[in-house]
Amino acid sequence: MTAAPEAQPPRPAGLPLLGHAPALMRDVLGFMTRMTRDHGDVVRVRLGAQDVWVVGHPGDIETLHLQTGRLFDKGLWRNPLLTRLLGRGLLISEGDFWLRQRRLAQPAFHGARIQGYLKVMQTQVQALTRDWAAGGERDVSADLSGMTLRIVMRSVMGLPENSAQVERISHALDQALTGFNRDFGVPLPPGVPTPARRLFRRGSNGLDDVMRELIAARRQQGGTHDDLLDMLLAARDDQGQPMTDAQLLDEVKNILLAGHDTTASTLTFALYLLATHPDADARLQEELTRLDGRPPGLDDLRSLPFLDAVIKETLRLYPAAWSTQREARQEVTVGGYVAPPGTLFVINHWVTQRDPRFFEHPDEFRPERWLDGLEARLPKYAYFPFGGGGRICIGREFARLEAAVALAHLAGQFRFTPLRPLRLEPAVSLRPRGGLPMRIEPRQSGREG
Description:
Elements: H1 21-26, H2 28-39, E1 42-47, E2 50-55, H3 58-66, E3 72-73, H4 80-86, H5 95-105, H6 111-115, H7 118-132, E4 136-139, H8 140-157, H9 164-183, H10 195-221, H11 228-234, H12 245-275, H13 278-288, H14 298-302, H15 305-317, E5 324-328, E6 332-334, E7 337-339, E8 344-347, H16 349-352, H17 374-377, H18 396-413, E9 414-418, E10 424-426, E11 430-432, E12 437-442
Helix pairs in contact: 7-8, 7-18, 8-12, 9-10, 10-12, 12-15, 12-18, 13-15, 13-18
């Protein structure tokens, strides 16, 4: 943070031509951790001919977030697979177009509106409880992914859980995300048709097909369905203009991905952590006794501080957005170093949220750390699972409510025993690699939902 302005950040030695790409592909989380811990809060990583600046200090991360739109863009449009999947939706778009879309979509995520989807969440959690009632071995990650998909499809597009479209969307999403994750970090030009990229395109095309059908059908039906798609269809900008079908398609896909895959992973990680930390699980069970076996309501959630601490600690250790990026619009100074226009910065959620300068025993699962006002004492961007600044996640309150409702009920009803160690897959988001099989046992004091 005190380097001379004319200096360049350190750049550890890499391989000829490939630079640090092979090390990133082998273990991107471990590599990023070593880079920051060994070389400082700003370090250059070479990917082929390009230097990427990895940033790990909260002060610099705050600058990157708060100056996005003025000094920095997100720069995600440079990833051809990501733009194919998400189009010009909120996660990718920039500038005036992003601001217009954000203003159009924002009313759909107001607090009262989000609370209106509580019943949908409770219903789907109870349905999964019935599926798990007999116990046995299950891929908990896959089951939770199905549950969160049904919640978001019901909330966004009013689709019932047994809808054929939900199954088509689930299949297409699985293909697209699997293909994307397999392609992540592969040092080949975008036009090379690898098996992973072909799988990705099949999934992405299939997702577009079913979404277009649903949007067209809704326009023809008219009427009121009391879901997010209704609100997006009715939204008008300052000139009275609605979203086009292409814009609707992109925004619905963005909401679907952000509200489905990430929450399922957070719940999977939370259940795994509770299963492997019996003291924390016992403390949570004591708190959940007041629910008497039912899914929590809003008033219940306000009186479950340890549940909230478990979710915060899970998001600290396993943030769905394990890294994000920004691209310099002009010459900028970050961490005392001058970066030329076009410099790509990687923001290290994974490393910063495990930094021993800010968290005692940073790699340990200790939910109780959040019970004494830690969040208020931390530097602002030492803990930022939903990002920050103007580009903070628009669906964060939906995700928080969904995670709390599901975790309270499922953790209260069942015991979980992992059948293999947790393996991580960091790509679009952080999720368990190959799922997470666990043995499920109904708790004796629990009652079927």
